[in-house]
Amino acid sequence: MPTKKVANREPLSADMDRDNTHRDQDFRPDSRASAQEQSETAKSEHRPLAVLIVDDYPGAAELIAVFLKTKGYDVRAATSGADALALLDDDWHPDVALLDLLMPGMDGFELAGRLSEGPKPRPILIAITGVGHLPARERTLAAGFERHLLKPVNPSALAKLLKYFADNRN
């Protein structure tokens, strides 16, 4: 069978896909980075950025969580929407939520809506998914997601993105 040539897709925003195209890197901490650099990555103002990771594949959630913890972030991970909601309490609410979109039960879209309810500020929503076609990207944008990242996520790009949000939070 001849292979179909796929046209280049247009990102929803100019920086949505930037630095998310290299897939040959892994999530091992950079041993060359100093403790101060790692600490400064996550901290802005007085506390580290709180990051919620939700992926129905436990290995993916744990790998990203370990990587982000080495960067100084306050991380909690879950493998379902219900488990993610159970992690929230009066003392901890995410500044950023990294959500897999296609999960059994409560999917990432429903979880995004649930995270937006209540008196706490809505977290910055970042989709982490294997679905990258334009309709999926449009749906995430319409649902209030700030970014749509494709799996496997480039660790350097994710660290830069979270540092940006940490540096620019209110």
Number-wise, the strands total 7
Number of domains: 1
CATH superfamily grouping: Response regulator
The N- to C-terminal Cα distance equals 54 Å
User: How is the main sheet built?
Assistant: 5 strands, parallel
Strand content: 15-25%
Helical amount:
25-40%
Q: What is the CATH architecture annotation?
A: 3-Layer(aba) Sandwich
Which class of secondary structure composition applies to the elements? alpha/beta
Mind explaining what this structure looks like?
By secondary structure, the protein is α/β, with parallel strands linked by helices. The chain has one domain (44-167): Response regulator (Rossmann fold, 3-Layer(aba) Sandwich). The chain has helices at residues 35-42, 58-70, 81-87, 108-115, 134-142, 155-167, and strands at 43-44, 47-48, 50-54, 74-78, 96-99, 124-129, 147-150. Strand 6, helix 5 and strand 7 form a beta-alpha-beta unit. Helix 3 (81-87) packs parallel to helix 4 (108-115). The longest helix is centred in the middle third of the chain and has 13 residues, at 58-70. The chain starts with 34 loop residues before the first helix and ends with a helix.
